[in-house]
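Notes from hallway chat w/ T.B., transcribed later so I don't forget. T.B. wanted the structure written out for a chain they're using in a teaching module, and asked if we could keep both sequence and structure tokens in one place. Agreed to drop them here.
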Amino acid sequence: MTVPSAKHAYPIWSLATPLSLALCMLSANASAQQQDADAIAKKLSNPVAALISVPFQYNYDQTWGDDGHRNLLNIQPVAPFSLSEHWNVISRTILPVVYQKDVIPGTDQAGIGDITQSFFFSPKKADEGGLVWGVGPAMLLPTGTDDLGADTWGLGPTLVLLKQEGAWSYGALANHIVDVGGGRRRVDISSTFLQPFVSRGIGQGRTVGVNLESTYDWEAKQWTLPLNFFYSKVTKLGSQMLSYQGGARVYVDTPSGGPDWGVRFTVTLLFPE
């Protein structure tokens, strides 16, 4: 075997240059993907962002020391529509699918609950102070089966206020719904929902946060106050962008016989522009 002389040996740079270019391209691609994931994660923290998403939110709630529990799957499609050069309307739908076993032995319910439909009219850009806002109507649609629905139409205003500074997002979402019609089983409804929230992006499409999904029933004069802690991450499965989230909650206040603690898992299909 003949050993090549130095003048016939491949120069080191001829091998190193393609390898270096490939490494640089891989690094740049990974960096771009992380930036895209962080940008989408930031949009997910904004209830009125111009992002089509379909969250499937599974909740399990349990009472301390009792057999009562609830399995709830909220299907929550979000779709923005452009109204003009400066305005969007964002449709947010919540369709609950429920199975629950009551504390009273031998009683349970399964089916779908009443749909909550909201429309937010929101500027496409934040104001000079960085405030993002949206306002519009919220409607309760009597789609519930068996004992899971109120058999009542509801209507009221909804509002979201949000500020995003660097990695932080904080704000609140609220609505107030009252009954405006219904069938034979119609019930009186006057309910206020208030959800203050704060979250922080921690890079690579990851977010941690906390919110309080408080509801006040003016008819029963009763608060329901679940405090939620969560972690989420934006990723890709094949060609599909998605986010997964996990978290836990404790109920600061709840009606008699209501849940005391719970867990939540969410998979969100994402369709960025």
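Follow-up for T.B.: Residues 12-44 form the longest helix (33 residues). Might be a good example for the class.
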